[in-house]
TrEMBL record:
GO terms for molecular function: heme binding; heme oxygenase (decyclizing) activity; metal ion binding. InterPro entries: Haem_Oase, Haem_Oase-like, Haem_Oase-like_multi-hlx, Haem_oxygenase_CS. Belongs to the heme oxygenase family. Keywords: Heme, Iron, Metal-binding, Oxidoreductase, Repeat. Transmembrane segments: none annotated. It comes from Bubo bubo. This is heme oxygenase (biliverdin-producing). CDD domains: HemeO. GO terms for biological process: heme catabolic process; heme oxidation; response to oxidative stress. Pfam families: Heme_oxygenase. Its EC number is 1.14.14.18.
Amino acid sequence: LVGCSVQPVGGSGVFEELSLFACSPTDLSELLKEGTKESHDRAENTQFVKDFLKGRIKKELFKRATVALYFTYSALEEEMDRNKDNPVFAPLYFPVELHRREALVKDLKYFYGEGWKEKIQCSEATQHYVDRIHHVGQHEPELLVAHAYTRYMGDLSGGQVLKKVAQRALKLPSTEEGIQFYVFDNVSNAQQFKQLYRARMNALDLDKNTKERIVEEANRAFRFNMQVFDELDEIGRSLTEEAQDGGLPAHDGKGDLRKCPYYADKLGRSWATAELPQACGTRLAALTVLSVF
Ligand code: HEM
């Protein structure tokens, strides 16, 4: 089976579990990987994620994404704390290695200052995701693993790439301020840690039906993430230039952009080739992208 070959790792302690890790198609880790493949492809192909990977993300939008993550991980980690002694989740409780809330608080302090809490709010799509996490944690805790898997395994997989992209695109300091979310100080080897996590998921005592419900819930978690991405994409399109990282000044969104001397001058040659918008406003973002990238 592809993805099942486990390199036995030496040493002692929890990593010894890995040498016992034999993979079978009915293992939860395999069912999740196979059962969420399509969702993963779809998530990778959302506009927001594609733009992010190309470094096309403005600071204001990155800040909003950090806010969404803050509310999501606050809910997730609250529910994981609640279920830390529940056998359906306890083996996957790794607060020191994985929990992101504190890292996100640091990022929000960096972006919004000490009064960060008063300056942020939970978006609609994020609220739906948060509500579902709380429901699961309180009423169907056997499904909590699906939410933890979808986020932390993803973070440990693509995080390093995204960290570099964000650092470069937003010109963030090399001291990693603003991107603490992507830094797992207590995971020295992400690949090994993911194997440990898979082994722990497979050791949960679950019947076939519960495993199927967990896979279904993981696909649901992917959908919540995609809804948050789509919402961010929408916000990105409607941000004024001023909000977009001190770019071009905001415009009132009315009238013909070609009659605005500032833009005609500012956009210069790209103006000639750009598809001219009917009006300013939301389509300014598209024009700025044309002129900046
Ligand atoms: C930026 C676009 C993305 C890229 C390039 C990417 C890339 C990858 C790669 C290469 C792996 C395999 C790592 C391995 O087997 O060790 C992986 C795994 C994973 N990713 Fe992503 N990913 C992206 C977005 C996402 C998103 C948006 C989510 C969910 C919110 C996600 C969740 C996961 C999960 C849960 C796994 C673990 C799969 C498993 O081994 O069971 N990824 N990703």
